[in-house]
Write a structure and sequence with these properties.
With 508 residues, the protein is an all-alpha fold.
Length: 508
């Protein structure tokens, strides 16, 4: 075994911590939001606590990918961690909702680099043939954080303070920073680069427009409001402008040549669709458990543990098999098939469905997801030149996030329209549909009204999951066009490899 192997394992441990930070903060806030509003006020701006973080992380991801390719990943990753931790401290100290939103955006500016640069560093230090096993562990971290995030948030709210959902990042981030500083060695290379500032600004504007109108349209702002129409027009105008600028840029922020790469284009499309179906549909599983089955937020989180278990099993198993066999194409095919089957099963949820049956359906969904997400990243990194590995990784992640944002918006519209129709049909005469509906309030309704809400919510979820199933089938069809590019042996496991675009920027 090479002498560098223990050091690479140490670096990988730090990367797991970094990825855990990024993944947890996407979910840990959810259970604390009602308490935060009770403390700080500003319920009208509640959605911005989530949207500000998502928006900042999405628009900065491609920028971090490019900076890592140009200047080496160590400094870029360390900078992202520091920005994230500063944002976390300020979020914990926030004294108003406006402050919290601003500090969540700052936290998101750092978070955008955590995931992208971490995945790219794995591409630098692990040869493709060995990478499947390590990517599997990353998939497991995502699966764990999906369920542990809300549970951890609930624990801090109940036993300490909502502010600890941000302070908990500090020790984890400090450990990651220390390990990276000691174990991840680089050599300084002084090379002048022509940074594509105009392209970065246009991409940020286009992504911001898409994320904002999909996240806030139909909720904070009506779909026909001037704000939403303006954002849609901006996204339509800025996207082609970005393409024109990138075609002429010396060092584009997202090289258009990547889209001529069959694997990058296809995996980006598959990731977009899977993100669309996954984030759009899974958002409503806790709602089913809380409203229809009467579970508390914490208990509903525990009831989704099978989803996490499914992701854990297939993420690690597929990673091990990819390393052993040197093949990856079969896993996205099997994974998207299982996701589609799971969505069909979830569309059959009724008021009388056992919680254990619902958990079983969630487990099937987890099994499918564990074979898709990280394998797509592996396929992209194996198919592109290592000088553009950072932007290829960030591009792949970006399309999945955009898909998720649009999916949540579309499924939210489908669900809201159907639930109001169902309630109008089922509620006893004389009972009006309330403007605001929340699980806790529904529990205290009169029995007949409560039963009507349970049935309406269960019925309203059917078209959501049916639509998600159809979209997942489309992803399944696309996976058959994925080519099996032989996994490169590259350097020996444990050698820290260097991207040809910047010969020594991540040298051992």
């Amino acid at each position: 075994m090479p002498n560098d192997q223990p050091r690479v394992r140490l670096i990988f441990t730090a990367l797991l911590f970094v990825l855990l930070l990024a993944a947890l903060d996407q979910t840990i806030v959810s259970t604390a939001l009602p308490t935060i509003v009770g403390d700080l006020g500003g319920i009208a701006h509640l959605s911005w606590v989530v949207t500000a973080y998502l928006l900042a992380a999405t628009i900065t991801g491609p920028l971090y990918g490019k900076l890592g390719d140009l200047y080496g990943r160590k400094k870029v990753l360390q900078s992202a961690i520091v920005v994230f931790l500063v944002g976390s401290v300020l979020c914990g100290l926030a004294q108003s909702m406006a402050q919290l939103i601003v500090f969540r955006a700052l936290q998101g500016l750092g978070a955008g680099g955590l995931m992208v640069v971490t995945l790219a560093v794995v591409g630098d230090i692990i040869p493709p043939r060995e990478r499947g096993r390590y990517q599997g562990y990353f998939g497991a971290v995502f699966g764990v954080s999906t369920v542990v995030g809300p549970l951890l948030g609930g624990f801090f709210v109940d036993n300490l303070s909502w502010r600890w959902i941000f302070y908990v990042n500090l020790p984890v981030g400090a450990i990651a920073l220390s390990i990276i500083a000691v174990a991840f060695h680089t050599r300084e290379v002084h090379t002048r680069h022509a940074m594509d500032y105009l392209g970065a600004a246009l991409l940020a504007g286009a992504l911001a427009s898409v994320v904002l109108f999909t996240s806030l349209g139909g909720t904070t702002w009506g779909w026909s409001s001037p704000q939403v129409i303006g954002l849609i027009v901006a996204s339509i105008v800025l996207t082609p402008l970005f393409v024109l600028v990138e075609a002429r840029a010396a060092e584009p922020i997202l090289p258009l040549s990547l889209f001529r790469n069959h694997t990058f284009s296809l995996t980006s499309a598959i990731g977009f669709i899977v993100g669309f179906a996954l984030f759009g549909a899974v958002t409503y599983l806790p709602l089913y458990l809380q409203v229809t089955k009467g579970s508390s937020p914490t208990v509903s989180g525990l009831q989704l543990v099978p989803l996490m278990a499914g992701v854990l099993v297939t993420s690690i198993l597929s990673g091990q098999l990819i390393t052993k066999l040197g093949r990856y194409r079969v896993f996205p095919i099997m994974g998207t098939a299982l996701v589609a089957v799971a969505m069909v099963l979830l569309s059959r949820l009724e008021v009388g469905t056992s919680v254990w049956v619902a958990a079983g359906f969630a487990f099937v969904l987890g099994l499918g997801l564990g074979m898709v997400m990280q394998v797509l990243v592996l396929a992209v990194q194996n198919a592109v030149d290592r000088s553009v590995m950072g932007v290829a990784t960030s591009g792949s992640t970006m399309f999945r996030q955009i898909g998720g944002s649009i999916g949540v918006a579309l499924f939210g519209t489908i669900f809201a329209n159907r639930v109001h129709v169902e309630l109008a049909h089922r509620l006893p005469s004389g009972v009006k549909v309330p403007n605001t509906i929340n699980p806790e309030g529904i529990k205290h309704l009169p029995p007949q009204t409560h039963a009507a809400f349970q049935a309406a919510f269960a019925e309203a979820l059917h078209p959501v999951f049916v639509t998600a199933a159809g979209i997942s089938v489309f992803a399944f069809v696309l996976t058959w066009f994925l080519r099996e590019v032989p996994l490169k042996i590259g350097a020996q496991p444990g050698e820290v490899m260097t991207p040809p675009g910047d010969p020594e920027s991540v040298a051992a």
